[in-house]
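Sample pair:
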Amino acid sequence: MGSVLSTRPFAPCSTTPAALRSHLLRSGLAGVVSASRERSLSRYRMFVAGDPRALLGLEPERVWRLGDLLRLMARKCGVSVDPGHASGQDVIDPDRTIVALGAFADRLAAVAEARAPVLIGTGHPYPLLDFYASLAAALSAAGCPVLRPAQGRSVDITTRFGVRTYNLDYVRGVALVREPGARGCRSEPGVHTHSPLPLRLALGAAMDGDGPLPAMVIGDHGWLCGAGQLGIEAIGPADADDPAPFVGEAEGRVSVVVPLDDTVRSDYYRPLTRYVLNRACLSQ
């Protein structure tokens, strides 16, 4: 994906790739992950069928058949390319994760060097809020405006329980959605959603004057794919059972996707945070 942002040379990192690789495997962030092979194949088939729950706001430019998608996910994540392998736990190659983390860090360095505005959002606030909040603090300290458009506005999202109304909120610079009336405390960090609608609400508000448009969106699921679909540079993590971000990357609309398990304990992401911030010269 094209970008107006420049790049920076590699910066030495105190968390070595070898140590990071060991951590990825020990924590379940890579290697054998929590996503089952059955779930991954189900999500791949949903994507091929054009199910919005799997597209995450992306509108693929080409027709993706199951075999094409399996080959892509094998290349990007390291999953089995065999559709007959239909049980057990899925896998993510830690070496692919480390390469993608390097590219992720390089894009962080570029946006920091440009002091460009960023929008950070998540649909997985329980595990990933601290990861994103650390990025928000580092980018803010580097002079990047961390945007908060449409704070407090409501958005209707279709869930398995029907259409639910949520409020867009920001915690430590990270966008998420909450149940109406939920308190802004760590025990209620937000609602799990894959919808692109919160991202569209935020960008619509920015276009209407609630702050500038972001030069980059950092996030997952609907934040990542929704931004890429609209032509905004987008980077973030994705699990082995979510093909849409990897398709977006393959088609040139998502800049960087980091393959990793996005449902492990929050503290397990801290070595990844240190790695990318050190490489991006953003450690505080």
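The CA atoms of residues 28 and 261 lie 7 Å apart.
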